[in-house]
Amino acid sequence: MEGGRRWEAMPADCLVDVFRRLGLHDLTLSVPFVCRCWRRASLDPGCWRRLDFRSLDFMPWSHFSMSFTSRYRLSSLSFSAFMRFVVARSRGSAAELLFPLSLGASIQDLTFVSIKCPRLKRLALPNNYMLEDDLRIPELVGRWRDLEQLEMETKPSSFLETIAVIGRSCSRFGRLKVRGLIGKEDAKAIVDCLPNLSHLELSKSYLTKQELLVIINGCRRLERLTVKDCLGLQVDDEVVRPASRINCFEHEGSKLLDDYGYETDESEQQSGFFYWVLASDDALWSNLFKERWGGDCAAFYAPTDPKSWKDVYIVQHRCDRFGLGLRIITEGNDYYLIHQDCSGKELMPSQKRVHVK
């Protein structure tokens, strides 16, 4: 506007204060290409303190990937390459880093970040590490002495060790988010290792009232506790009374029974065996399939006879929800359900495989 202030004439510190509020998409594809002074300001490490990769799509055909490769004249784009690009611009000042949930991130990326981003206060991990990588999480997380918040969409097999390391190494730690089977040992470890937690989120986990009470009674400094949509949990007066001292206690959607009317106990979850739901009525099965999963499972497994696969879908769905590795294998013309760890090692003896077809 004529006679008005020009954005490009703003002091650099003011531009940095504006740009630090933007996401990585704008910082890499928009701001640097407006004018030279905006580009210079965007290179300030203060603009790169929050590295949130979860809003970006790194698939080759995505708008973001195609735009980035075009702007920077690249033949292709991977998450690892992009992560190193923005981490370099942060120059060690990054305070928050959120890995994408399931695409592209590796344990090598986490190792790189532990070296190049030593001042992290918030870390959100991906949910697709292999078992041998999963076991390295405690070592790497322990490098961030200033860590205050950790988010894990899937509980790693090294959860107990991770919590212990945080308790020893991260004196300012106060916020934890994790999803999975929260057993007796897990609840006790949270209380023993992280007694000063202020925020804890266990939503969409398998959690019983006994374990929840251990946490409520042991973590006396909790200000916010979220256990929404948990299975194995019915919040009654026995829970509400001690939880009343917590400023915010959210438990909507939690229930004892699963979607099919069966109560599931902890030993069942730990072993990977589940009650089977066999819908004898084809119409009922069809409706269940459409309501729960749409067409994704059918497209992925491409069953030739859906009626004989209904138990596969249900058990697969429930295992995935609780982070258990149920997979389908074939031997000749036979199909079997097997229970695997994250590295693909079969956990159940072959004689206990479930014959599906």
Automatic annotation (TrEMBL):
Annotated F-box domain residues = 7-54
Q: Which Pfam families match?
A: F-box-like
PANTHER family according to UniProt: F-BOX AND LEUCINE-RICH REPEAT PROTEIN 6, F-BOX DOMAIN CONTAINING PROTEIN, EXPRESSED
Please identify the protein, giving its name as recorded: F-box LRR-repeat protein
